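Hey team,

Filing this mostly as a record. A colleague (T.K.) asked me to run one chain through the structure pipeline before their review meeting, and I want the input and output archived in the tracker in case anyone asks later how it was produced. No errors, nothing strange. Just documentation.

Input sequence:
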Amino acid sequence: MNSVRFQVHLAENAIIQYANRIEAPLQRIDGALIAPSTMPITFWKRTDAPWLDMPEPLVHGTQQFNYKAPLTAGMDLDCLLSLTKVEKKTGRRGDLVLYTHSLICSYAGQSIMTAETVLISVGDK
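Output structure:
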């Protein structure tokens, strides 16, 4: 299985805690608290992606976020996390495996945020 669906409720206290951890300013639009742009990376903790259950540690490679609208407190998001590509390479420290992921979050049936993240597994020489 290369994808998992899950829901996320964006609680105001979760936004405040995340913003404080990354030292981001709190922002509001029309009175609603806005989630920091990198907060969707924490949504992965709410699901069990079977392809990430591996003994090797994963190193964070790259990530990109694209928004059609801000994520605000009170939203109930429908999310789809997918493994879109697995690429093997050889690096200075041995074999590397790059896992490219796509996260799509929708609100009220409309896609409002997409993210692409690359995680790297480093093997022995």
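Quick notes for T.K.: Residues 3-122 form a domain with the Thiol Ester Dehydrase; Chain A fold (CATH 3.10.129.10). The two ends are 30 Å apart (CA to CA).
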